[in-house]
Design a protein that fits this description.
It comes from Rhodoferax lithotrophicus. The protein has eleven helices and eight strands. The chain is α/β, with parallel strands linked by helices and about 290 residues long. The mean pLDDT is about 95. Bound molecules: nicotinamide-adenine-dinucleotide.
């Protein structure tokens, strides 16, 4: 059976936003030294402060001893440059959902990390095969797709592109399991598993809204209370962030050669254009002021 990465393996996380911070928290809690890098000045330090506050809260609730919380917090380091990630055994990328930007980052990374380092992308929808095409060694790249919020959501999709080596996927699978997650293997088809299945959840709700069938709050309440979903489609999109969710919608639509069933909504475009990105910007379908 393939072994998980040893806890002495340094894990680097690139992107200290909603997902990167959550993934860094999970890896640090599991015992790894975690280097967190973001190209927004101060973002990594701010994210680490937030994660430490989470660990302290967990300790206050008795979910973790105070010593364990402090030790987990101390395993987090803010990196300033890509070169600081030289000793990583695993790099998890959680930056903007854009193929060219991700390809450029991984290309630069290849020049920094060792040959043995596993490269993983937390992309929600971009083809792992396509990201890997820019690399000298695409065999070591796989998707490691956490769900939001990463510390709480159990599922992790381990996504193999055409070139991904089986050993890389199985090591990531074992590592996610060792981190307390419930991993599943997926091939790199558009949207992988969950984001593919979830597309109609958002798209049909947006169509009902456009047709004046019901308002957001009613639709959300129906899905939650009658449908048994934990969140309705509009509150879920607000939580994900419209920039992220719209990018995923566009990427799945394009991947299926502009199939009408995946057509992005003009409302999503408007929200992104207005900067109404959901919870993180204080306004989306709902107001969070
Ligand atoms: P976010 O906007 O909250 O964070 C992205 C971070 O990456 C920002 O802090 C930004 O400054 C940083 N960044 C951008 N380009 C960079 C670069 N070249 N180098 C270093 N840092 C860079 O986004 P997020 O919601 O955390 O999403 C990140 C990734 O995770 C995306 O690929 C997204 O599709 C995926 N994802 C998002 C969710 C979700 O619900 N938000 C869920 C699963 C996967």
């Amino acid at each position: 059976m393939t072994q998980a990465l040893a806890t002495h393996t340094v894990v680097a996380v690139i992107g200290a936003g909603a997902m990167g911070a959550g993934i860094a928290q999970v890896a640090a809690a599991a015992g790894h030294t975690v280097k967190l890098l973001d190209n927004r000045p101060g973002a990594a330090v701010q994210a680490i402060d937030g994660i430490c506050a989470q660990f302290e809260k967990m300790a206050a609730k008795g979910k973790l001893s105070l010593e364990a919380a402090q030790a987990a917090g101390a395993r987090l380091q803010a990196a300033e440059h890509l070169a600081d990630l030289f000793d990583a055994g695993l790099v998890v990328e959680a930056i903007v959902e854009n193929l060219q930007v991700k390809q450029a980052l991984f290309k630069d990374l290849e020049a920094v990390v060792s040959e043995a380092c596993i490269l993983a992308s937390n992309t929600s929808s971009i083809s792992i095969t396509a990201i890997g095409a820019a690399l000298k060694n695409p065999q070591r790249l796989a998707g490691l797709h956490f769900f939001n919020p990463a510390p709480l959501m159990a599922l992790v999709e381990v996504v193999s592109g055409l070139a991904t080596e089986l050993a890389v996927a199985t090591t990531l699978f074992a590592t996610a399991a060792a981190w307390g997650k419930t991993p599943v293997h997926a091939k790199s088809t558009p949207g992988f598993i969950v984001n593919r299945v979830a597309r109609p959840y958002y798209a049909e709700a947006l169509r009902v809204l456009h047709e004046g069938g019901a308002d957001c709050a009613t639709l959300d309440a129906c899905c939650r209370e009658a449908g048994g979903f934990r969140m309705g489609p509009f509150e879920l999109m607000d939580m994900i962030g419209h920039d992220v969710n719209f990018a995923v919608t566009q990427s799945v639509w394009r991947a299926f050669f502009n199939a009408p069933r995946f057509l992005p909504s003009l409302t999503q475009q408007d929200l992104v254009d207005a900067g109404f990105l959901g919870k993180k910007s204080g306004r989306g379908f709902y107001s969070y002021q």
